[in-house]
Amino acid sequence: MASIVSAALIILTLAVTGFSVFRRYFIGHPLTWSDELSGFLVVAIVMLGAAEVLRKGEHVSVDIFSENATGRKRWILEFWSNLSIAIVAAVLCVSAINSVQFSLMFGIYSDSYLEAPLWIPQSFLVVGAGLLCLLAAAKCLDLIFVRNRP
């Protein structure tokens, strides 16, 4: 579901950017808020798409080690990789939760033309990091219980 929302946000970002370009160069009245909205949407796109990329095994990795490893070494590399992702994503999720709570408590808004409540774009960090952490943890459990060490 998150990947579908991410794909829809890509289309929305394209539409907003295209409309902004049209307004700037053909009408002569640029949108003042489109750059900030596009930035927020890119954060949402990346965070919502990260778990899907991990699920498909398309994250950037050092292939020279993982492609040449076999047996126990490959299992250890896969486990360590997924465990590392789970830990970093958990730390990011907790930090994002704190940021959202802080923004809500003090009513913080963006300081540009859009003046959006910052908890909204920050919440995509919580959702994306949470999904990434859960998926990486599930991959670790899969390695332990389903694909036992060779």
Q: Key features?
A:
150 residues, mainly alpha, 5 helices, elongated
Describe this structure in words.
The two termini are 34 Å apart. 19% of the residues are buried. The protein is an all-alpha fold. It is built from five helices and no strands. α1 packs antiparallel against α2 (34-56), α2 runs parallel beside α5 (119-146) and α4 runs antiparallel to α5.
Which structural class do you get from the secondary structure elements? mainly alpha
Distance linking N and C termini? 34 Å
Rounded radius of gyration (Å): 20 Å
User: Could you give the count of β-strands?
Assistant: 0
Walk me through the topology.
Layout: H1 2-27, H2 34-56, H3 63-66, H4 71-106, H5 119-146
Helix pairs in contact: 1-2, 2-5, 4-5
